[in-house]
Amino acid sequence: MREKTSRETAVGRISEALPVGRGVTALIGGGGKTTLMHVLAEELKETGTVILCTSTAILPPEEFPVLTDGRIDSVRRALGDKGAVCVGKMGADGKLHAPDLSFSELAGLADYVIAEADGSRGLPLKAHAPHEPVIPKNTRLTVLVIGIDGIGRPIYEACHRPELYAALSGSGAEEAVSLEMAARAAAAEGLGDIAFINKAEGEERIAAARELAVMLPYPAVIGSLFRREYLCLSSSGARETLRPASRSAL
Q1: CA 109/CA 130 separation, integer angstroms
Q2: Quick check: 209 and 200 in contact, CB under 8 A?
Q3: pLDDT tens, 117-161?
């Protein structure tokens, strides 16, 4: 097998590191998706209008106006005033759920639509159940979020749906997650066009994130949303894109 090599480019904005274009971008995987959505929205609203939303359920953000009436005119007005708004339907659980407006309608209202497409209970790593992720049909980019802080911790402690993660990675739920296990789990699911490996802070975690990125079957960005530091990595032996075959779509 040909050994993969990688090239690195340092950037200071996650919207430049990830190839987020006009239309719908779906965020899936481990913890950090909500923060990634918020940081992307803050950056992207400098060049266009942004709708934040979910295809499942999220907590209402404090940083952005929240619209729950499902009215197109309300969304247009809020976008004109604020540049970025969160749209959804309030549930009895106090969370925002998928909006009444379709994702095609949302994409027609804003330049960018950022959708959180699954939950991970804040854990750094995740395996997806058969009904997950819920990727909108008109999604143009799917970003798989991986928390490098899950490496070295037991699967049952670091992973949402640990039994599924153990099966995907070919290990036991009591075992500590290795880089090889994380790469096997990601490759087995085959979900995502690009990976964002978050919490790469300090020499040890940055080195681990670099190593994991080369193992993945698609391009990767490593970095820290907290520090706003990012490295774009592309591996010469990796596929340029991997279009996900979503198991659940809106």
Answers
A1: 31
A2: yes
A3: 999 999 999 999 999 999 999 999 999 999 999 999 999 999 999
Instruction: Provide the token pair at 133.
Output: 């992720």
> In whole angstroms, how far apart are CA 110 and each of 21, 50, 77, 174?
12, 6, 11, 45
**DSSP structure class, residue 178:** P
Give this prediction's pTM.
0.90
Q: How many CB atoms lie within 10 A of CB 74?
A: 15
Please give the Cα distance from 178 to 158 (Å, whole number): 12
Tokens at 17, concatenated: 């590191």
Q: Which residue bears the tokens 């266009």?
A: 48
pLDDT(179) > 70: yes
Q: Which CATH number fits domain 6-235: 3.40.50, 2.40.128, 3.30.70, 2.60.40?
A: 3.40.50
Domain boundaries, the chain: 6-235
Which residue carries 């919490």 as its tokens? 199
Confirm if 144 and 194 have CB atoms less than 8 A apart: yes
